[in-house]
Please model this.
Amino acid sequence: MAPRFTLDEARNLLPALREHAERIVRLRADLADASAALRTGSEPAGGIPEVKALEANLQEAIDWFTAHGIELKGIAPLIVDLPSELDGEPMLLCWLEGEASIGWYHPAATGFMGRRRLPRSPGDR
Model:
C-alpha cells in the first residue's frame, strides 16, 4: 500500500521536493540541448556518452520521487501527486512546477484536469 501524506507532511516535504525538482529541470534542459545537437548532426559536448549519462542521472532524479511514495506524473512541466485523503476519501495532493506551495488536490480518477484548491483551514494565510 502506498504511503498517504497528511497536508502537513506534504508541506514539510516541499523543500526536498523542490530541490529534487530543480535537479530534474536542469537535467531535462541539458538533455534537450544534447539531444537537439544530435538531431542536427552536431556533436554535443561529451558526445553520446554524455547523453547517456544525462539520461541515467535524470532517471535517478525521477527515482527519488518514487522511493518516497510520490507520484511523478510529468517532467515537462513537472507534475507531482502525493497520495492523501480529504474528508475520509482518497485523493492526491497536487504540485506543479513553479508553485510556491501545495495548495491543490484532485481525485485519482479525474487527474490533473480535476484539480481543485484545497479548502482553507483557520490557520492558513
Summary: The chain has one domain: 7-117. The longest helix spans residues 7-39. The mean pLDDT is 91.
